[in-house]
Amino acid sequence: NGAELFRRNVTVCDESGCSVDVTFWNDLVNVVDESVLQTQPVVAMKGVSVRDYGGRSCSTLNSTQIEVNPDLPEAKQLKIWWANTGCSMAFTNLSQQGVSAPGTGGQPMVTKNMTIAEMKNDVKNMDLGGAMHSYEIVGRLQFITTRGRDGNDIPIFYMACDSCNRKMAEGSDGFCQACNRQVSVKARYMLRSQFVDSTDDAYLTCFHDQAHALIGKPVEDFVMAQET
Residue 98 burial by CB count (10 A; 0-12/13-18/19+): exposed, middle or buried? Predict the structure, then answer.
């Protein structure tokens, strides 16, 4: 619509030895301006969008709350850590494609054929520092969730960058932070679904290709229905 947007990319880190890129949009850009960043502050954020496509990153929304140097014990502890240790550390940037948190990077993917009950028990007892796991189960689609417990609608699709398929940030006006340019936007399925077998049930998220196979209709049909 021709509106002018403002953004600022900031890298944040903590005692975990990891860092992540955060994109601040519009009015929130002024909260972390250059004069603030030069002091290397502690920044508390609530309600940011977290994405895990091609590397993990965060982006502010219209509802995001930001506080610089909050009066919290955790913030004071973080300042002490930064002054004594953090400022000289080398961090693992989780926003870089193919980078995982320490303890998981480079581990092979383990695929297991299980019932739903076996899968849930395996996840409960999983070593979070070990290899990544995927599961193959045979079950039946019970239902697709379209309304949350609070009564609010749960959308079955999201608007994504046509180039990298990453979810577009609210208020981005067609600018993809991953591609760092204006892009075309398209709808992609994301279904919150319940599956069952003879042993248990599980809530799983079905993304575009799998959701299309389940529903058998192009996502554009639902976009048009919503617009009318």
Answer: exposed
CATH number of 7-93: 2.40.50.140
CA nearest to 193, candidates 151, 139, 152: 139
Task: Mention every residue, 6+ apart, whose C-beta is less than 8 A from residue 31.
Answer: 24, 66, 68
List the Cα angle 139/142/146 in 5-degree steps: 135
Fold match between domain 7-93 and domain 111-227: yes
Neighbouring C-beta atoms of residue 104, cutoff 10 Å: 12
Amino acid type, 18? C
- Residue linked to tokens 């076996």: 118
Say which residue, 195 or 166, is predicted with more confidence.
195
Sign of the torsion formed by the C-alpha atoms of 57, 62, 67 and 68: positive
Tell me: pLDDT of 36 over 90: no
- What whole-number percentage of the chain has pLDDT above 70? 88
Mean pLDDT of 86-114: 68
**Domain at 111-227, CATH from 1.10.150.120, 2.40.50.140, 3.40.50.1980, 2.60.40.3500:** 2.40.50.140
Instruction: Give this prediction's pTM.
Output: 0.51
pLDDT at 104 over 50: no
